[in-house]
Write a structure and sequence with these properties.
Protein Transport Mog1p, Chain A; six-stranded antiparallel beta sheet; 10 strands
Length: 241
């Protein structure tokens, strides 16, 4: 066999192994780190989420678990301790670089935390523009940018109820991203946003556009459950019940 043919066979073998590894990651629930690779658990293994755990060792020890309430202590970019919580109907996945829960049976629905340092002059949710959310969530280094930056991004703020005192704003987004097979996938998401210190804490809850209408109520419950506040001095590191 010529060296050219050997090189071609090596490339084919490499691609085959990568595709098989990706398939196992996305289909086997026991592969806990799957979500680190982006939507569906494929692609790069460490997207940039901006999450900094107050106790990284404790966060690394967490095991895949059933759905329920999620509580973490994080650190804002300026060092402010933050108590973050939400509730999701899908398993929380093990990760040392972020916080994510995903429907491991189908992989269409998921939620994850993104943390962004606020630009100078932005100090509250009233100053948050959709453009900042777009740059933060849909960058090529994020969970949706594994195969190229998302396109057709539209973000709108959902009007708040007069009785809402949660300190969280909710946005609805639609966008198009690429699958590992380089096929366009239209998706919709709820984006929950809170400001603590100089950090913008986001919970992104998403599914495909086709499934969104059916699951809109369930996804909105996840979005509405999100909270990020200054953490009191305590021994809390993380807890899931």
């Amino acid at each position: 066999m010529s060296m050219a043919n050997e090189s071609d066979m090596s490339r084919v073998d490499f691609v085959s192994k990568m595709l098989m590894a990706s398939l196992v990651t996305s289909l086997v629930p026991g592969v806990a780190n799957g979500f680190d690779g982006g939507v569906g658990g494929l692609g790069k293994t460490r997207p940039q989420t901006g999450v900094i755990f107050r106790d990284p060792e404790a966060a690394a020890e967490i095991s895949p678990s059933s759905s329920g309430d999620v509580n973490y202590e994080l650190i804002s970019p300026d060092g402010t301790p933050v108590l973050l919580s939400f509730s999701a109907p899908w398993p929380l996945l093990k990760s040392t670089v972020g916080i994510a829960a995903r429907d491991v049976t189908g992989g269409f629905e998921s939620t994850f935390v993104q943390v962004v340092e606020l630009p100078d002059g932005v100090t509250s949710l009233d100053n948050i523009k959709p453009g900042l959310l777009s740059q933060s969530i849909f960058a090529s280094t994020g969970k949706f940018g594994m195969y190229g930056s998302p396109t057709d991004i539209r973000i709108k703020k959902i009007p708040e109820q007069s009785s809402d005192t949660s300190g969280t704003s909710v946005y609805q987004a639609s966008f198009t991203t690429l699958t590992p097979a380089m096929i366009e996938s239209d998706r919709k998401a709820y984006i929950s946003a809170s400001v603590v210190g100089n950090g913008l804490f986001l919970l992104v809850t998403t599914t495909t556009s086709v499934r969104f209408k059916k699951l809109e109520g369930e996804l909105r419950k996840v979005a509405d459950s999100f909270s990020a506040i200054s953490a009191p001095k305590s021994n809390l590191n993380l807890r899931k019940s």
